[in-house]
Amino acid sequence: MGREVFSRSSYSEAKRDFGITRDHGVTARAEQQAMKTGKLLESVDPAAGGVIRRSLMRFDKNPGGDGWIVTVGVPMPIESDVDTTGSMGDNVDTSMKNLPNTYELSAEVLDGYDPQLALGIFGDVSDNFIFQRPQFEMTAKAIVGYLKDMVPERNGGDSPEDPQYGLFAAAYLTDAYINRIGLKGYHFCVSDATAHDRFTMGDLRRVFGDSALDVVNENAKKCYGNNKHFSESKIASLRIGDVVADLLKLSHAFFVQVEETPYVNAFWKEIYGDDRVIVIDSTDYLPQTQAAIVGLTEGTLTLSETADWLVQHRVERFEALRLADQLARIPLGAQALLRDKLERPLPKAGDIFQQKTDLWPISDDRTTTITQSGGVEWL
Amino acid sequence: MVITGQNGNYETLRLLGKDGHMNYHICRDTAGNWHILAIATDTTQNAVVDRVEYLLRQLAEKSEKYEQEHAEQTGSDRRVHYDWLFPQVIDRLTLHEQNNRKVIVLSFLDANLQKSFALMQITERKQRVDLKSSAWMMGRLLKLLAFLYESNVMAPILTSNFLLEPDNHRLLMLNWTTATLGDVPTPAQQGFVIKQAAECILLLLGAEYYDGAWHYQYPLEEGEMQYIKCLQSLHRGDYTDALQAHAAFYETVDSLWGKKFHPFTTYSISD
Asked: Mean of the pLDDT values across residues B159-178?
């Protein structure tokens, strides 16, 4: 699977190759294509590519013997579902413009990992396409490629929108190495509105295809055990809160609310909890906000340095201070705590795996966490 | 045990207290200054250390801002010393040899930690403070609350959270783990904590709670019942704004005793 990662030069090259010369209207061709065919391109169609999105370790064949060499590091899935209804309609353009920041800032706080981005969008059930989901990708060519293939409809119909199928996909249609070893990936739902708190089999099939339920059940069993099984009636009684509760078992999940609207804030806090809803003024600051959340959760960024870190990455000081105050509430160091519980150190580039499907490298004599022991005065 | 931080070395001395999130040790830097070393009880509490550090640094910034505003408004260089109301974070580190537990080193400006003791010791040793001592203590608590609310911070006022430094008339709030930074505290929230503060002081005065109110049974000099009534009023929830409560409280205190330094005084609860 190679060792290429995102870079600014490869981003410029990819945009040039795809004929993207402006910051606006980057999805124009895909929108025209969708109008003609009534279908999404495979790169963003949640029903395509086997429905499940995978975040896996990248390897090269070991030239010196058996096994496979890790090329970059532990894959870290970062998925976001961004609202593209109404006033949020320009968000794919914004995601394209912000992409270098999105990748680089995440990579900065995820030292040793292989950040893999799935930047999806959602609309309303009254739209032609409720939800669009790419694969987890890590190269500029692939990410620019899927962003330009998106079809933001910019409608919405009414105020509550329909991000729930994106949350459903993240919870039940994701297969990530990071979960297999006991850590979590990241998920961000970004919107300025509340949601319709309902799921229907009809919409589930519209989004994920006719075999959706079978695929969901097969994958959910792997992620959550045999007790997790969805029937058609269970889908009808499913609520967003149930889905987010499951999602939180696999991901450090957050709702990023665009603009302060009290009833929207109350709606999402009820679902995510007070510590997982962050308000920003515009999606221009989304890469910095997401990366700060990741850094604080990983323990690579401390709360006291967060405001300065945000300012250093071009967030206005006033906004940075406001953000830092909100970030003080999130579960700080949550990933670090999970890492402390691992029986082995995290695999790193250069480690050799016997099989690509193995959980851990062949051998590892690195020391594990120091625990309380004799000879050290315990404070 | 000597610990090396980013800004110096600290010799840890006796354990001062625990709150379930952090253990607090008295420590001494190489220049001989005394500080408090607060360490997470385990790595699950590292986030609490981070939050406390962040909150205290925010308070330090706010305090400095208010000093500047005060100087501009009054043209005076006399400080209002909000920075005496909370500890300064002077260092931070992660102790890898202690299971990666996080540490912050705290310093109370111009306070003598060697002469400080837990506020709870007063009642534990069957002592009670005199009225004038209680007045500066209540005044400090109301000033603290006014500053915290102005800074959008909520914190409970519990006797167990404070050290007393009698020589410099200081109440040192040690446990900040339950303080939260966020929205402007509502009048109801302010009223509740003002009530907590008054209860704390009434308890230290040796007052007793019965029939739904605190009663002071020790001898009073002329006019001093007015002071007790003022405390009872604060405890009843008559004030829902810490700044207003502070002003009203000092109106009573100044009219009774004026502005004079009064040495910290305690009596036995049986006297």
From this structure: 95
| Global ipTM | 0.76
Cα separation, B99 vs B221, in Å, equals 58
pTM: predicted TM-score of the whole model, two decimal places:
0.87
Q: Do A333 and B181 touch (CB under 8 A)?
A: no
* Contact: B53, A302; criterion CB under 8 Å: yes
B181 touches chain A (CB under 8 A): yes
Question: Rounded distance, CA B43 to CA B49, Å?
Answer: 10
To the nearest whole percent, how much of chain A has pLDDT over 70?
95
Of A331, A340, A377, Cβ closest to residue B47:
A331
B1-48 pLDDT per residue, tens: 999 999 999 999 989 899 999 999 999 999 999 999 999 999 999 999
- Taking only the tens place, the pLDDT of each residue in A87-140 is 899 999 999 999 999 999 999 999 999 999 999 999 999 999 999 999 999 999
Beta bridge partners of A173: none
Residue A219 has which token pair?
């994958």
The beta-carbon neighbor of A371 closest among B12, B44, B99 is B99
Nearest residue in chain A measured CA to CA from B151: A325
Task: Compute the distance between CA of residue B17 and CA of residue B120 in angstroms, rounded to an integer.
Answer: 12
Under a CB-based contact definition with an 8 Å cutoff, are residues B104 and B91 in contact?
yes
Q: Which residues of B touch A376 (CB under 8 A)?
A: 97-98
Residue of B50, B88, B151 best to disrupt the A interface, most CBs of A under 10 A: B50
Across the interface, whether the CB atoms of B182 and A325 are under 8 A apart is answered yes
Across the interface, of A329, A337, A379, the residue whose CB is closest to B23 is A379
Say which amino acid occupies A23.
Answer: D
> In the predicted model, is pLDDT for residue A1 greater than 70?
no
Distances (CA, A) of A108 to A342, B44, B197: 23, 24, 46
Q: Which two tokens stand for residue B9?
A: 């070395």
